[in-house]
Specification:
The complex is a heterodimer of chains A (232) and B (473).
Chain A (H helix, E strand, L loop, with lengths): L1 H16 L16 H13 L3 H14 L3 H14 L2 H13 L4 H19 L13 E4 L3 H28 L6 H38 L1 E9 L2 E9 L1
Antiparallel strand pairs in A: 1-2, 2-3
Helix pairs in contact in A: 1-2, 1-4, 2-3, 3-4, 4-5, 5-6, 7-8
Chain B lengths: L1 H11 L21 E2 L5 E4 L7 E3 L33 H8 L10 H10 L6 E8 L6 E8 L4 E5 L3 E8 L9 E6 L4 E4 L2 E4 L5 E7 L9 E7 L3 E7 L5 E4 L5 E6 L8 E6 L2 E9 L5 E10 L11 E7 L8 E6 L2 E4 L11 E4 L4 E2 L12 E8 L4 E8 L2 E9 L3 E11 L5 E7 L8 E6 L4 E4 L7 E3 L11 E7 L5
Antiparallel strand pairs in B: 1-2, 2-3, 4-5, 4-32, 5-6, 7-8, 8-9, 9-10, 11-12, 12-13, 13-14, 15-16, 16-17, 17-18, 19-20, 20-21, 21-22, 22-23, 24-25, 25-26, 26-27, 28-29, 29-30, 30-31
The chains are: A mainly alpha (232), B mainly beta (473).
Chain lengths: 232, 473
Amino acid sequence: MRTAITGTLVLAAMVASTPARAQPRVPEGPGCSTPCLVAKAREKLKHGDAAGARDILLTAYALIPQPALLFALGQVELELGNNTAAIRYYEQFIASEPGDEQVALAQQAIGAARMRIAQPVEKRKPDPPKPRVEHRWRIENTGLVLLGGAAIAVAGGLLYTANLQGNDASGTLKEFDDRLDQARTLRLTGVGVAAAGGLAIGLAVLRWRLDRTEVRAAPTPGGATVTVGRRW
Amino acid sequence: MVRLVIFLTVLAGCFEDRYLCSSDADCNLGEAGRCEIDGLCTVFDKVCDTERRYSPHAGDRADQCFDDHTAIANLCAAGQPPPPPDGCAQDVCTALPACCTSGWSEACVQQAQLRCAISCDTRIAITATNQNRSVIELWEYDWNGSSWRATQHTDREGLLAWVAPAPGELEPRLAGIEVGGASVLVGGALLPAFTDRTYQAITSVDFDRDGRDTIAIAFTSDIARIEVRKLDSSAVREFPTTVAFGLSWGDTDRDAFPDGVAGIGTRYTLLDNIDDASHVRALSGTTSSNVGGGPTTGSPSLRKVDWIDIDGDRTLDLAVFGNQVRVHANADRLNDTPLVAVDCDPLVLNAMCSMTDQPLNSFSGTVLPSVDAQLLFVSTFPARHIYELAVLPGAQIGRVTVADDCPTCLPIIAAVARDLDGDHKLDFIGLDEKLGLYVGLAADGFRIKQQPIALRPTRFFNVLPSVTGAPSP
C-alpha cells in the first residue's frame, strides 16, 4: 500500500510538474509550488505521517485541482482507515475521466475500501481490572505472636539452663549423671516449648495470609461499581 | 519451622558427656566405680578382659571396655603393663600370650631378647644376706655390653631391687630401703616404711590392670604380707598372704590378671589375683606346695621362683629352686602338684634320694628358654655342679648336660638368664656365695667362666638377684 501511495504521489508529482495544456494554470503559493507540496507529502508519508500527507495534498488540490491528486488523496485516506472518504476521492477521480487503466486502478482501490468496510471491526476487550487483595491483621494474631515469642523466650531460658547443667562436670559421677538427666529433660522441654512458640507465630502468619479481602472495581455505563469479597 | 526445631535441638544437644574424676570416690555410679589413669570412671564388668568398662559418661570411650595396654618404651625391663600386640610385642605374645594380657614379666623380656631385634644392657641388683640377716650387702652388677661393673650400695639397706621404669619412661628404677628404715625408695619416690617389717621383695606389677604405676612390696612382720601401693595416688592395700620371700609375678590361673608366687620356709604359695566381694582385686593364696627333699645345711629351703613356658603350650609355667627343683606346668591353671620334681646329685627325676643324700643337696638356678628349647640351668649346693636340663612335652627330661663341674668351687646360689652378647640367645649368669660372678655364653656352649669381680669376705646364705635392663644403643 505504501508503495502504491508513493507511486500515486509520484504520478501526482509528474502531473503537477508537467504543464498541461488542458489545465488552467494555477497560481503557485507564496512558499511552495504544487510539485514542492507533493514532494513534502511524499516526505511525510515516508515518515509514516499519513495525516500530514493528506493535509498537504488537500492544500495542493486546493491550489491546482488535478484529478491525480484525488487518487492520491483516496490512497492516503485508505491508509488512514477512512475508507468511505477514500471511496469518495476515487469516485471523483473516475468522474474526471482518466484513462482506462487509471479507472481500473481506481475501481480496484474502491473494491479494497469496500471490503474493509464490510469487515467486522474486532475490538479487544480490555482485561478486567485485577482485584486488589488486602490481608487483614487481627488482634488474635497479635496474641498468637506474643504467646509464641514468650514461649520461645522461655525455651531459650530452658535451653540455656540445660546447657549450663549439662556441661557442669563438678561433684561426683552420680551428681553429674543426675544433672545430665535433668539437663536432657530441660532440653527436651525447651525444644518442645520453642516448637510450640514457633507454631503459634506460624499460625498467626498463616491466619494473616489466609484472611484476605478482595477489592474489585469495575466501570459501568452509569459509573463504576466496587465489589468487596472475602476469602479464607 | 522444622529447621528451627532442628537448630534448637542441635544447639541444646551440645552437652559434653564426659565426666573427669580425681579419685575412686568420685565414681559412685554403677558397680565398684574406679577412677582410671585417664581421669574417666569405669565400673565392674566381668565381660571385659580387664573386668572394667567405662561409664556412660566417658565421652568417646563411653561403655567401651577399659584397656590398660600401654606401649612399652623399654622392653628390657619386667614389671610393666601389657603392651599392645604389635611390633616386637606381637612376636613375644605369639609365643607367650600372657605378656600381652597379664603383664610384661621377666619371661616376656627373655622372649623379646630371643625374638626381637633389641639389645639390652644388663643390670642386676643383689641383696646378699647371711643366715641370721646380721650382714646384708647390697650390690649392683652392671653389664654394659663389654664389661661388668660392681657397685656396692650403702645408701640403702635391707633390700635392693630393680622395678620397671615409671610409665612412659625408659630407665628402670632402683628400689630399696632408706638407711634408717624410714622409707621405701623407688627411684626418686619415697614410700612409708616401718621398722617392724623385714622387707623381702620390691616389685612393680600392673596388679589391677589399671595401667597405673604400681609397686608390690612383700614383707614379714607378725605374718608375711604383700602391700600393693599406687605411686600416683598413694592408695595402698595390704594382703596377709603369709608368704613374702621371692615374690614374683606371672599368670597361674590364666585369667589375664597377674598372679604372684612367694614363699616362706619350704612352702611356696600361688597367690591368685582375684576379684573380691567389692570387685577390687585382691590376693588369695589358696594353693600351696612344699619343696621336698629335706633341708640342706647352709642353704635356704627355697631360693628362687622363675617363669617359663616349659611345655610349649604358650602358657607360663613355674620353676622353683630350693631343696628340690620343681616345675608346675598345667595348661588351665597351675596347681600344687609339680609336673617335674628333681633332686639329688646327679639329678634324679621324680624320685626320692636316699635319706643319706637328701640333706646334702639343694639347688639354685634359672630358666633359660631358647626359640626351640626350654632349658633349666640347675646348680647344686654345696658341691658345685651345673646341669642343663631340657624338659620335653610329657614332663620328660630330654637331656641333662653338665655345663660345669667343680665340686671344690664356691657353689652358685643365684642365677639369672639374659642375652649378654647380643646374639639373641640367652646366656647364663650365676653368683656364688661370695658374690663372685660367672657367665656362660650360649655362643660358647655355656662354658662357665668367672668374671673379674672381687669376691666378698663373707659367705652369704642367701643371694637375691633382681635383674633388669634398658635398650643399649
